[in-house]
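User: Predict the complex with tryptophan.
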Amino acid sequence: MRKTILTGDRPTGPLHLGHYVGSLQQRVTLQRAHATYVLIADLQALTDHADVPDRVREHVVGVALDYLSVGLDPDAATVVVQSQVPELAELTVYFLNLVTVARLQRNPTVKDEMGQKGFAADVPAGFFVYPVSQAADIAAFKAHLVPVGDDQLPMIEMAAEIVRRFNRTYPGAGGPVLVEPEALLGRVSRLPGTDGGPKMSKSLGNVINLSDDADTVARKVRGMFTDPQHLRAQDPGRVEGNPVFAYLDAFDPDAAGVAELKARYRAGGLGDTVVKARLLEVLEAFLGPIRRRRAEWARELPAVHRVLREGTARGRAVAAATLSEVREAMRLYGQGEAATGTRE
Ligand code: TRP
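Assistant: Here is the predicted structure with tryptophan placed in the model:
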């Protein structure tokens, strides 16, 4: 069955390899089989970047270039700029009544992010409720599937809860109005940082960007964390927790070759520089075509803006249709039967 897919990214910086394995790869694979919407979540970006609007605006185009460079096809997938669809903000306001502050406080991803950003009592209210706005993004498009990395699972769970609550509270005349979404995890749902930390994250400075040039990638790979006990090539090394091998698992098409490298590394006799050289070769083979496509689109910026304009218009029509049904189910004044005067 053809389903609807929606996912999104905050335009606060360049997208990196973690975004690719967590979600971008799935979108590219599925974009022709399903109705695919990709949201550049600039309103969500403002929830913790309210004071740098120019940066957010600039990265709207940067993220669009990242999408196009990894092979998102604007004829198959619809790229939508969140702030240009006011229906999403409207649905967020309705949804805020269907979730409690206590429930929001339990969201582990928001908790982690608040800690990471050093927010305590001074967390912006908009940031605290961004999972609700994300639920509205998903519900407005009636998405069944949301391709995300595993850090986003609590968000999708909350979106499903809010949708269930909405459908129970406001049963539509013709059956439930909104669709309960499900997360779709990638083959690799999380990529460690170059520092060996659990997650690649721009704010931690441990990322390899899809737009990094060859010298930058080489420098980052050379500086990668490995096994701190593996001091000499002849010593046995640890593969677990070693991000060089995690990246090989994610990007090296030669799985048998990776298995052999792991065996040799564990046994001792294989130096970090050799494994890193293989990783660099694999990453360059992956990033080369991405860089070339990016350069082509970057020469045609008016075409990129056209992709955004046309995608946003198509996306807005979908969200607007959902919002008419939502208002009617909610019995808002001026909607549906009441508007025609047949009931009141
Ligand atoms: N929160 C997501 C992120 O951090 C971005 C996002 C915004 C999103 N709206 C969405 C993801 C809707 C999935 C569905 O990258």
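Residues 6-10, 39, 41, 44, 134, 137-138, 146, 148, 152 surround tryptophan (CB under 6 Å).
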